Amino acid sequence: MQHEIVEPSPLLDSTGALTQRGWTRRPLLDCNLEDARVYGRGRWLQKFRVKRWDYYGVLLPEGYFSATIADLGYAGQMFVYFVGFATKQYHEETATIPVGRGVVLPRNSDGGSSTWSGKAGSIQFDVSGSTRTITVQWASFAGQKLRADLEFTAPDESTVIVTPIGERRFYYNRKINCMPVTGNIKIGDRTMEVSPETSSGILDWGRGVWDYSSFWVWASGSGFLADGRRVGLNLGYGFGDTSHATENTLILDGRIHKLEVVDFDYDSGDFMRPWMMKSDRLDITFTPSIERTAKTNLLLIRSEVHQMFGAYSGTAIDDLGTEIHLDGVPGWAEEHQARW
Q1: Residues 79-136: tens digit of each pLDDT
Q2: How far, in Å, CA of 1 to CA of 130, rounded?
Q3: CA torsion sign, 220 to 226 to 230 to 231?
Q4: What pTM was computed for the model?
Q5: I need a labelling partner for 260 at 20 to 30 A (CA). Which of 116, 150, 219, 267 fits?
Q6: Could you tell me the residue ranges of all domains in the chain?
Q7: Which residues contact 320 (CB under 8 A, 6 or more apart)?
Q8: Residues 35, 207: contact at Cβ < 8 Å?
């Protein structure tokens, strides 16, 4: 069931249908969203159904920092948040822009700049080769000035998936785990130095046309093994036709090891209980310690996400059949429901 895409092509053909379905280690498909055909005569409505976002995060010893630029068709939304691991507290700021005015997002994930600037602050992501530079400024973040200057180094391989959603809808997604990061994050008088020896960067790059009501679970981990190698997990389920491929992968020293279906066992009535994730090559437990809840209600756009931060433990088996022991790999698991 894990069909690997190996040839480049446009994402969509002239009728708006996907040209290929499955997964790939690199972004081989050109994201020609201009050829999407969701509505027949009402093609002017299509721009409201296309969803695009760039989400960056960095796991560091002190906590987790993240910034997002998103164009959801009806509105642009920018998110910046920081979760403190010692305090178990988090703070988040959001800016919402009608119809995404002023939001710039590149066509593909392997080059270009993503930018937004407003009264609240500014966010810029620049991609050149394997280097990704992130600059974030926010005028009042919990009453203090925030500035982040970070440089991510991307590996050659990443988790890229093309998922059909019905006949004319789809999700084209690239996730990069375990990126070395250098730079600093300043919040008021506090400066957190970010070092590649102790930190890991994450990218969630998404483009697609979704059902109005959507649901997904996403689990992600990025850390280090006892021998110093970088290790990560990207797991998920909940939307679209995954008969061609899932997004489930083990990442080991920059290489993707493809997993098949992963069964999730968690309690949506008590997200702080341990989450179990199992497949034929995976048997892990995620133990949450912090819950971040984010809710949006903008009439047409509603969402609720429970993002649990904690640590992964257990075992995974790589493509060579070697058992990998995970012990306290940091990350998160989330449940997300959206009407958008």
Answers
A1: 999 999 999 999 999 999 998 999 999 999 999 999 999 999 999 999 999 999 999 9
A2: 30
A3: negative
A4: 0.96
A5: 267
A6: 9-339
A7: none
A8: no
